[in-house]
Amino acid sequence: MLQKNVLFYLINTVFNNSDQYIYFLEMEFYTNIESGKFLDLDAFSRHYILIYFVIKCLKIIIPALIVLVIFRQTITWQLQQFWGASGDFWQSRWDIILDTLGEDPFLYWVYGTLLETFLVYWFFGAIYTILDLVDKPAALKRYKIQPGTNEPVDKDRLIKVICYVLFNQVIIGFPFATFCYTIMLWRGPPPLRTLPTFHWVLVEMAIFLIVEEIAFYYSHRLLHSRYLYKYIHKIHHEWTAPVAVTAIYCHPLEHVVSNLVPPFLGVLIAGSHVATAYLWFFLAVLNTLNAHSGYHWPLFPSPEAHDFHHLKFNQCFGVLGVLDRIHGTDLLFRSTRNYDRHTTLLTLTPARQLYPDKKD
To answer: Are 151 and 235 in contact (CB under 8 A)?
Structure first.
């Protein structure tokens, strides 16, 4: 009977009670977990604490699944129609590329990947950089996450960032891409000539997201250990208010472990086509530029969590925030106004205006 009551309490707490109460419960748990003390709640045990966090994960996943199921038919039908109607178009253009450049997979996996990520990074990174340098138009400053910072950005610091980034992209990027190509050959990539189907691309994207969240979160937390932070990761955290091109401003070892390996792992596990890898790397580069941009734009994914990480150092280590929620590494973040602003803006009104700082 006691076990049923505890389980019922857990479910009721997670799905019905307020976020403030859950936050209080988590704070109590994390405060006492290291000393071996647990909440004095109906003989709360480790077993039920595990259940508690599983249910919390379900609280995040279930609503997303419900929305996906509701809109699945409409969304996938529309996208599949587009993909199907243009499938011959994309395949024919891919055939032209292969007929023109040849079918050497090294060319596409190594040089193609390096060229794509380099161009995407600097095309969009240049837009942000120009915005940070000229510090105009003033109307865009309304979307700054940390107002008053990098207005304009320090040119000497920016030059240092650019040098580091170019070194990581070229000197580190080429041997790593070659290594990844070798691993992919061992894994066995799909035929180069045939593009993947629409549904399989969706499946792979889901795999990429999950694998990157896991790999990036734990590698990132490892970099925050005392020794690795002092000698490696501290470089990246020189910018407490980051700008877009600082996304891969870091020690070369960190660039490999935390920036290159997590996105590639999903591609390796899924045995993806190089074209799918191009799409994924394109999205990954855009996401990291946005996360470090210092701006919270309308309709863009919220960069509030990672910006808060740069500000406070020991919060929000992940990409999606799922593992941060499970491990409690976002407790401080969720107690601040930044968390209220951590949403995709569906209006032109800036997040700081929608959720102004609380007065003391």
So the answer is: no
